[in-house]
Design brief:
Layout: H1 2-24, H2 30-36, H3 40-69, H4 75-95, H5 99-118
Helix pairs in contact: 1-3, 1-5, 3-4, 4-5
C-alpha cells in the first residue's frame, strides 16, 4: 500500500508540475489556449494572474515531492499538500470549471486516502 500511495503522490506532483508549465509558460500558446478554452485576447489579459497561479501549483508539486523524498518523516508534507490540492480542486470546481473536480480534486483525494491508509 505504501508504494502505491507514493506513486500516486508523485503522479499528483507531476500533474501540478504540468499545471505550472501550462499556466506560466503556455498560457497564451496553442496548448494553453486549448487546455483552458480561452481566446488569445483573454489569455493576454489574464497572463499575469495565470503565471501566479502556476507558481502556486509549483509550490504544491515541490511540497509533495519533499514528502515523498523524506520517507516516513514526510508524512505531514504529503497530508498537508494533498489536502491543499483537494480544497483548491473543490474551490476551482465551484468557481471556475466543474472539470477541475476530476482533474485536480479527485487525484488529490485518492492520494490523500492512500497516504492515510498506508500509515
Amino acid at each position: 500500500m505504501a508504494t502505491i500511495s507514493e506513486i500516486v503522490v508523485v503522479l499528483v506532483a507531476l500533474l501540478h508540475g504540468c499545471f505550472l508549465v501550462l499556466e506560466m509558460f503556455l498560457w497564451d500558446k496553442p496548448a494553453g489556449l486549448k487546455a483552458f478554452g480561452q481566446s488569445k485576447e483573454r489569455a493576454a489579459a489574464t497572463g499575469v494572474l495565470a503565471a501566479n497561479q502556476g507558481l502556486y501549483n509549483g509550490f504544491i508539486a515541490a511540497g509533495l515531492l519533499l514528502g515523498v523524498f523524506h520517507g516516513a518523516a514526510g508524512y505531514g508534507f504529503k497530508v498537508y499538500f494533498l489536502s491543499c490540492v483537494v480544497v483548491a480542486g473543490i474551490y476551482g470546481a465551484a468557481t471556475a470549471s466543474r472539470g477541475i473536480l476530476y482533474v485536480q480534486a479527485l487525484p488529490g483525494l485518492l492520494g490523500l486516502l492512500l497516504v492515510l491508509l498506508a500509515r
